[in-house]
Amino acid sequence: MRKFAALLSAVLVLSAVCASAFYQPTEGTSPREVVVFAGAAAAPVYREVAAHFESRYGVKVALNLGGSGALLSALEIARTGDVYIPGSPEYLVLASKRGIVDFTAFEPRALAYLVPAIIVQKGNPKNITKLEDLARPGIRVGVANPEFVCLGLYTKELLEENGLWEAVNRNVVVHAESCEATARLVYIGAVDAVIGWHVFYYWNPDKADIVWIEPDKIPKISYIAGAVTAFARDGDLAVKFLDLLASREAREIWRRYGYFTTLEEAKARAPRAVIEGLGRYGG
Amino acid sequence: MMVVSNLNAKRGNFSLTNISFDVRDGSTLVVMGPNGCGKTTLLECIAGLQKVDSGTVIIDGIDVTGLPPEKRRVGYVPADYALFPHMTVRKNIWIAFRKSKGIGLEDLQRIIRLLRIDDLMDRRVESLSSGQKQRVAIARALAAGPSALLLDEPCSALDPPTREALRRGTDNTLRELFRELNAPVLYTTHDLLEATAIGDRIALMSNGKIEQIGLISEVFESPRSKFIAEFLGFNVFSGRVLSANATCTLVEVGGVVLSAEGRGDLSEDVKDVTVAIKPQDIALSLTRDAFEPRLGNCRCNTLSGVVRQVYTEGPMAKVYVDVGDLSLKAYVSPEYLEELGIKPGCPVFLHVKSSKIKVLPKA
Amino acid sequence: MGVSAFRVASFLCLAIILAFFLCAFTSPAAFTEPRRLALALMSDEIRFAILLSIATATCSTLVSLVIGIPVAYVLSRSNFWGKTVVEGFLDIPMAVPPIALGVMLLTFFVRNPLGSFINERIVRFVFEVPGIILAQFAVISILTIKLLKESFDGVPPRYEDVARTLGYSELESFLYITLPAAKRGILGAALLSWTRALGEFGATVALAGATRFKTETLSVAIYLNLAAGNLENVAALSTILLLISCTAQVAVRRLLYGGSRP
What is the CATH code for C34-257? Predict the structure, then answer.
């Protein structure tokens, strides 16, 4: 009996120790913190801005980076988090429909613009100069999965609008499962070209080259926008963070990583392009 | 006929050294020795399961030394029988029979009958008793039609009653079987009684070497080294030669002087020797001259001592007698014991013929 | 006290583990309904994914067994120079995250001259179904080998020795004596490897991509839906995967043990 009691108490003590490791103090007892769910693609930008934010306001920024869809699912299930910054506006619309973000606290505005482009291997060995070249026999093309990945949907629309979907599809050897995976295809050299966001080049300029698409051919461009969640603990702080991301100083950071920071810049590359609206909060 | 010549095999710290012997068809050579002396290694080398460094094994005129086990046709029965698991007896035997050469269905049926396993054929091997397993294992080895048979301590895994029957010779199965087989049989054990019951010749091994080899009766009668004498259960003492000539050797053992016939194998001026006396060769009596009329003219050693202990084991009684500093073991029949009323503490006289005193090299 | 404290504690641990996994597996139910499950099963894409998953898992398990059985035999029976090093080396792939393994393989077939030669001339692995099988194999083979070795270790070499004296060569002894004796262990290893291959995602997607109606397995489909934020589909597909796994477990156990326990 004594042995049993000893064993039981040992198990209880052990459980208590483990439990305390996971214990999160409730709000009000910890220093202020902003929890941000943001698309991994623009991670370097968020990290820099977060550092600035921390030094300016003395508030820690917890960055949760990942795929826009996965982050949305996490927010939906857990219902914690202060800011959501997906990689494209479609996700914000979805988030709003599901009651995850609140547009009234912060007018979502475009933080940076993304333009579709052809990303090729360094040195452009297959000498691709225009969209039609992707239909050339022998060219291996990779695209993001056109049903599940945002970039994929944009790619499909782009090719369909230009009557090239069938032709290029014959050269498509793989659907990638995410934006990053699409870019990776070129960096590793598994395909000759992908249709991706222009920033794919800037992420790794020594492993890829960019071939700008003829401006008139681009039907739609994307942008990164953020919003405050419906269950944010400190709405003010959340807004402050988003403000900082949209500020003049932040523009330098965005630019440095290759993003277009004004609509004009983006439109210069795609004059006829349409931008997905956010209800009455257009880009 | 199996001829082994100069077999050497090194296994880490242990090696078989210069093993040579031959076994004729129909003859059984028992290999005996303490645990670790190399019996199993020797058998495995002959079966081809272990490599030899030098030497040859010739079976029926064919040099099998370089051949893999499957080409040697040597039947092998390991100590734990190793019957193939999750199978019936029939399947085990069939597995052996399908690869057999020179043995027909009739021969197989005879083997099964001889080993009395006909009604076990459809039993699963896990459900058999140890005695049944032994017989199945032997049947399996024979079903392959081997030109020689090796058995590694085949009785060690048996339950006591079955083992006793084989030891005492009341169960003739194995002896009959080996005679019928008419092939060389190599049989290891460390039980003396079993050896006498089963085999014709015996080889005694120690530390990878054969110490002595010959007919069982010869070896048991005349051990050639201290180790063998001890192994066979002799009384063994260290002694000093007092005088020696062609007919008689006087040795002093623990304060007692004994006379031994002849000189044995000793060289000229050896002083330190081993003296061995078989317990069965010691006669006990209550009076000093009880045996003189019977033993007649022979030279005889008579010692006086006190009985320390008496153990009766079946048909044999062991009597431990203290003679001065020496402790001697004598075997007598329990009836004789009772007749004389020999008990612990009783003073007795021991009589040993000079011819029965073995003088051996020191070590 | 009739039952020892140790036994009680052991059952407690068992209860904890069962509860843990039950909680994990039943939570998707909160996000899905049977209707969605049925919808998913009627979709051509999903049906293709299910068949592809089962087919590739079966292939990679078979390949693992064909290569694994001889390897496990050698590791179990032989004592060769450098064996410890080889065994240690074979443990390493288990520590590599599957997605990293997949990227390594992709790089090999695309950048390495030998790899590109194989990929161009012999078998196309990159972004093709053989790539799925190879990726799964890369992830499960070590597990298979370890389990098989355990099974062979459990069959005393003595049986092979006896079989050889009966006239069977080393190969024959292995085939007719050792393999049947290790049958249960081998089937168990196969089942576990198959299940693991079914759930494989990281290496598969890196080497074979996530191409619809071509290299989209069930696990990849789950990921894609997660990436798109379709929680209901994720739950439905996960449930399908669990059901397939359960069915396989029950079916093989029935096969193995029939009616009687071993």
Answer: 1.10.3720.10
